[in-house]
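Sequence, please.
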């Protein structure tokens, strides 16, 4: 059917060009990836990430490369030991990432970037309204010991409860076993939101999973009115609800980072930290509109 090709012992020309390009990138240094920081983005992040000066004598690996490696891991969902060789050793990235997570660096970054984004959109730096929701992540052998069973979604895993502003930017986050009710996380979520915003939030929108007097009382204790958005009638499939759709879009944004597709972490604090890393990366990608790059 097809004409026979004479064997030459060399790959076809297009394949040779691809290999030549790869070899050139390796000789020139580390290849650039979409998850890598630009110079302007690094100038913004550096003060948050550096506990000591970048040129300190004890510094062996660039913090910028460490961030790029960590962001690549969260974005691709790869295993630590499968990290490409042009990044710092995986043990270095792992240890530094755990230090950053423990120090709450990414929460601080997200808070400041969110304020910049809101001001750029013509809004006040801190919101007055938030949206609450949660999603259940399937457990894995690493996270199975702390997983719970979500009878509604028929899934064993962990639930990530979040609060976002009207633009969809993350304000607070709680990770629980999937068998814990959404309404029981209202107090912790809203308290963290009020601490971050300086008590500016007055109303929280949520779905029917947050009904009940306990949830309403917990919100009222933080001077927040809990508004439950309900369907006007029984419906099948996905229905776009006013105000509530914003948090669904946030989950879609976060879901693009494959490390968050399931619960791959032994510790709930690490799973929560990767969500903050993904949100920081998202806000940095909006940087052309924020005057950062």
């Amino acid at each position: 059917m097809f004409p026979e090709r004479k064997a030459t012992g060399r790959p076809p020309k297009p394949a040779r060009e691809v290999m030549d390009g790869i070899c050139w990138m390796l000789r020139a240094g580390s290849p650039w990836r979409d998850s890598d920081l630009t110079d302007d983005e690094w100038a913004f992040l550096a003060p948050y990430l550096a506990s000591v000066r970048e040129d300190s004598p004890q510094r062996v690996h660039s913090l910028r490369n460490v961030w790029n490696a960590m962001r690549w891991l969260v974005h691709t969902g790869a295993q630590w030991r499968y990290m490409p060789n042009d990044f710092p050793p995986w043990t270095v990235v792992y240890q530094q990432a755990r230090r950053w997570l423990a120090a709450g660096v990414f929460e601080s970054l997200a808070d400041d970037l969110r304020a910049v984004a809101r001001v750029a959109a013509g809004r006040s730096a801190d919101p007055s309204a938030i949206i609450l929701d949660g999603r259940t992540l399937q457990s894995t052998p690493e996270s199975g010991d702390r997983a719970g069973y979500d009878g509604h979604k028929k899934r064993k895993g962990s639930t990530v409860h979040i609060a976002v502003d009207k633009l969809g930017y993350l304000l607070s986050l709680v990770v629980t076993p999937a068998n814990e009710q959404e309404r029981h996380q209202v107090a912790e979520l809203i308290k963290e939101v009020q601490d971050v915003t300086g008590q500016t939030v007055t109303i929280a929108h949520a779905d029917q999973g947050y009904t009940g007097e306990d949830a309403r009382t917990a919100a009222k204790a933080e001077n927040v009115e809990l508004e439950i958005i309900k369907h006007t009638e029984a419906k099948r499939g996905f229905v776009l609800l006013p105000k509530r759709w914003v948090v669904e879009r946030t989950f879609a944004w976060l879901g693009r980072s494959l490390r968050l597709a399931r619960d791959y972490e032994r510790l709930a604090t690490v799973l929560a930290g990767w969500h903050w890393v993904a949100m920081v990366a998202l806000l940095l990608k909006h940087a052309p509109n924020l005057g950062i790059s």
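The longest helix spans residues 268-285.
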